[in-house]
Amino acid sequence: MTNKRVLVTGASGFIGRSVVPYLAARGFEVRAAARDPDCLTAGKGVVPVKLPNLSQGLVDWSDLVDGCDYAVHLAGVAHADKDIPETHYQAVNCGAVGSLGVAAGKAGLKRVVYISSVRAQSGPVADSVLTEDSPPQPSDAYGRAKLAGEMALCDALAGSEADWVTLRPVLVYGPAVKGNMAQLLKLASLGLPLPLSTLGGRRSILSVENLASAILHCISADSAQRKVLLVADESPLKIADIVAAMRRGLGRRPGLFGLPSAALAAAAKLAGKGEAWARLDGDLMVSTGALRETGWQPAIGSREALAEMARLTSLVPS
User: Fold this and answer.
1) Which region among 19-23, 262-266, 282-286 has the lowest average model confidence (pLDDT)?
2) How many Å from the N-terminal Cα to the C-terminal Cα in the chain?
3) Cα 37 to the chain's mean position, in Å?
4) DSSP bridge partners of 32
């Protein structure tokens, strides 16, 4: 696998900043595409390039894929936001994906690895453990566009010698994480006891290191070709487990206690955080059996990765 050239889009994003050096360290020549390539550090095995404007939908990828063996598509609108028009989601997370597939087929790439999302399959909570056989039920514009992007890539490479793999990651975390996991990390960093031990929701989460290892695996594994695969850490965790692991990384005791869940839910609703609370106290669990059957195994456990994330974050000057 050494000396193979891979295009990585979204190279400056949260996931891209881990995936680019991960692949370069394993012998790939990485063409790292970002909206602002000047923010990337060129080094051994890494060549920063300009990412096209994906909001155009029909993107000319020909120069970027020329001479590449593989492509890993991370770029896109990364989160659900009610203020973003659905047309924008569809252009960036679907139209641009299909265009990449067409270009990859014409350029003779071996494979495109597309990073979709579990939200292509489900809303923020689910009543049962999700598998790839569960009917897709995206609940927002972000999820609908991700699902449409999966289909667009499949259609673009139908009958082509180039093939594809789609990964549906759950919530990804790691150093410099943003969003919900960053909020939990802020809570964990407080020197206060937290009333979280009675929360019953179980969540599948994904270390960015485990995602990088899954991407590396899916670049070349014959057993993964033309499959849509859920990817997560080994076991789901409760919110209390996540916070306790973070505090362990900070050298602290868990400091968690219980209050009636109904009381906490009512307080969150009064504070205008009812939807966020439902996500904390609800389940979203996935099975990674299909991905494991292709030969992949997680590189690191959740508790270890959460503790390391918290430790590294605490070392960054505020």
Assistant:
1) 262-266
2) 40
3) 21
4) 8, 48
Is the CB of residue 171 less than 8 Å from the CB of residue 181? Answer: yes
The three-class DSSP label of residue 117 is coil
Can you tell me which residue has the tokens 């070392």? Answer: 315
Would you call 35 exposed, middle or buried from its count of C-beta atoms within 10 A (0-12, 13-18, 19+)? middle
d(CA 78, CA 117): 9
Rounded to an integer, the average pLDDT of 5-19 is: 96
Residues with Cβ within 8 Å of 77's Cβ and at least 6 positions away in sequence, in order, are 84, 88, 89, 92, 93, 142, 145
Domains of the chain: 5-170+207-232+288-294 (3.40.50.720)
Identity of residue 203 = R
Phi first, then psi: what are they for 246, rounded to 5°? -60, -45
What 3-state class would DSSP assign to 247? helix
Return mean pLDDT, the chain.
92
Q: CA 285 to CA 278: how far, in whole Å?
A: 15
**Among the ranges given (54-58, 137-141, 274-278), the one the predictor scored with the smallest mean pLDDT:** 274-278
Beta-bridge mates of residue 168:
230
Q: How many CA atoms lie within 13 A of 314 on its CB side?
A: 18
Altogether, the residues listed in the chain come to a count of 318
User: What is the side-by-side order of every strand in the sheet holding 5-9?
Assistant: 46-50, 29-34, 5-9, 70-73, 111-115, 163-169, 227-231
What's the one-letter identity of residue 193?
Answer: P
The pairing of strands 227-231 and 29-34 is unpaired
